[in-house]
Amino acid sequence: MTALKNHNLTDNTFTEIIFEKRPCLNKDGSPVDKLYNAWIILNNPKQFNSYTTAAIKEIILAFRSANNDRSVVAVVLTGVGDKAFCTGGNTKEYAEYYAGNPQEYSQYMRLFNDMVSAILMCEKPVVCRVNGMRIGGGQEIGMACDFSVASDMARFGQAGPKHGSAAIGGATDFLPLYVGVERAMMSLTLCEPWTAHQAYYYGVITDIVPVLKVDGKFIPNPIVNTEKMTDEFGRITYGTLKTGEALAIAKEVLAKAETDLSLLDKAVNDLIAKILHTFPNCMSKTLTEVRKFKLEHWDKNKEGSREWLALNMMTEAKAGFRAFNDGPKDNREIDFILLRQLLAEGHEWNDELHRTVSPQYKEKQRGV
User: Fold this and answer.
1) Helix pair 280-312, 316-326: axis angle to 10 deg
2) Beta bridge partners of 84
């Protein structure tokens, strides 16, 4: 047999993420000889698996490695722990380095674009294992994947207009394809997160599984209405958070529960086991054809979005990310009303404006 060529750009070592090959399991749960799944794991749990510049580079290289590995059946993109899959870009890095530096953020966003494209161009099926919150850029890279299997404790959504950005790293391209224009508009502009049950009902994810155990038995997320209900206006409230006394009772149950992600892993492996029993080239071609709907919008918009996001680091993003990073934990948003009033008066974007609308300024004014 002719020696196989190595098509990787570099011999990769990973320090910001975890990259490992795990045995591909058959439908009966047994490992298949010489076949694997590539697990790309975001490893920043203290900051809810937000990705730094260094991590983005490694994610790109990891997808390239998985793509070129002939023994890999599928790629699993996930995060460490049970609190978050990914909450997007690292706001500390944004606030302390990129805010006010559009030329630097422009280069960062080129890397981000390459990361999203690496997911969309992977020749293997990509499964997003949603082990917790999938917010902001985390939602964007999650929607770039082909399948999403989620913990029923996960939350899904955007944060852009609340923190000085716009969800143009893929969300405005992908979300309308999943849920329609008006429902996407609500999520992208108001930044109100969806429960895993809502995301499943809306068609954003493939499957959800329970991850909480009480007295050794799995239970569904106790703080979510898991049955389709209607409110006083006749609107469907499936998957919404409980309120009042019901919420208080649910929190008591939650306090007694332990987290066990074994069913999440089983659901991911079961999905890939089904993929295993298909022709690989036919599978790859099908992925390519379905991904065209995402790529049509992504490729058209990504460069213009990158340029706008870079320039926005001089104004709203600078204010928003610094407020989130530096503000007190219970107040990380600027004074939106004051900002609009100042802009209506013609106030220019300068350091005085940033200070005046920041939560830190409000704390100082109150003498805290």
Assistant:
1) 100
2) 133
Structure tokens at 348: 């220019």
Cα–Cα distance between 70 and 7 in angstroms, integer?
A: 11
CB atoms within 10 A of CB 160: 23
Residue 105 · residue 137 · CB < 8 Å: no
Q: Model's pTM, two decimal places?
A: 0.94
Main-chain dihedrals φ then ψ at residue 208, nearest 5 degrees: -130, 150
DSSP 277-319: TS-HHHHHHHHHHHHHHHHHHHHHHHHHHHHHHHHHTTTHHHH
Tokens of 294: 């995402």
- The pLDDT tens digits of the residues spanning 194-242 come to 999 999 999 999 999 999 999 999 999 999 988 877 777 777 778 999 9
The pair phi, psi for residue 41, each rounded to 5°, is -120, 115
Both structure tokens of 50:
């937000």
Q: Give the CATH number of domain 17-222+257-312; options: 3.40.50.300, 3.40.50.11260, 3.90.226.10, 3.20.20.370.
A: 3.90.226.10
Instruction: Report the percent of the chain where pLDDT is more than 70.
Output: 98
The CA–CA distances, whole Å, from 75 to 68, 219, 269, 273 equal: 12, 28, 11, 13
CA distance 268 to 290: 20
Using alpha carbons, list the distances in angstroms from residue 148 to 94, 224, 267.
27, 20, 10
| Region(s) of the chain under CATH 3.90.226.10 | 17-222+257-312
